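S1.2 Input.
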Amino acid sequence: MTTPRTQLRPGYTTPVVIKGNWQIADDHSTAVGDDDAVYEHLAAFVDAGIDTLDCGDIYYGVEERIGRFIERYRRERGRAAADRISVHTKFIPAFLEEEGLRDLDRATIVQTIDRSLSRLKVESLDLVQLHWWNYDVPGNVEAALVLQDLVQAGKIRHVGGTNYNVTELARMVDAGVDVVVNQVQYSLTDRRPANGLSRYCADNGIHLVAYGSMAGGLFSEKWLGIPDPGEPNFENVSLDKYYRIIVDFGGWDLFQELLRALKTVADRHGVSIPVVASRWVLDQPAVAAVIQGARHARHLAANLRIAELELTAADHDLLNPVLDRATGPAGDAYDLDRAENRDAVENLSPDYFDVEAGRLVRRHRRVEAPAELYGHHLAAAHADPVGTLTAQR
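S1.3 Output.
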């Protein structure tokens, strides 16, 4: 089967399923393998037609891992094969460091883009998605215009955004930035892009790329029938993030009703719950692709089924009554997350919830922060003066 593709701009397409790579960050999970293991699982996705890799400049170690993968793939498969790989990275300036964001200048932006080029071992970045995480700090449009200049300089092919609401996205567009995509959280439990953003993007030639369609794995048979953990305390920060969205959605009981409806739909089609959840997102207006994070190639077969699945009216008739009872989250994309500063309050506890043999269990792990603290690691370090977190060396 050939993975369907969406044209983002003339001469530039992406598969409707993009390989997410936050899961292979050094600080995201202890289950990440060595370079050989990463190579094998990335190569499996690329060979299957899922040849667009998503990452970010603050995903600890990920740009470097992808760069080593591309270098080896080029060496073993040839330049023409390697050139078919696209990388969508993000520029996230001074994440959660307001003073650094206020001081951002052109030289720092260029230096960061050059660093991504070096890490990824490519001559031009296919897509750079700007995440201006604090709208109270001016400079978003100016930063986007610098990225647009770097398109003219040949360092970047396309510019996009991450987690933008309509107001801030419109400022970029009105300033002349050709915003190709806006990567946003979009799922059955987080339908905020439908509150005006999808329409704006469709009207202005901007494609939505959705992350979180599987809620980091909470949309799965694994969590069906499991009691409410009661707090956002999971293996990684993405699961914590999506648990908070479930609370906004209407709570764990309503989420379990949704999982049961999804299970019925999945059984009808001979697929799994996350395949149905992701297909629902892919069918929404202005959505060009869904990002599927995976640490192992064993998830590949399910990811490929997303592109094949066709949901029916009967399927929607099962899902819609549950969705109609949702209480949130309200507002535009990521506005609530910014208002509550959720990026800074991610839990980094050594004890976390998981499921084993159909039961909710508590696991213990050694929490390691990267040697160079950033973002939520900085926030955790400030709240942890006695040094519970151990830095990776």
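S1.4 Remarks. The mean pLDDT is 92.
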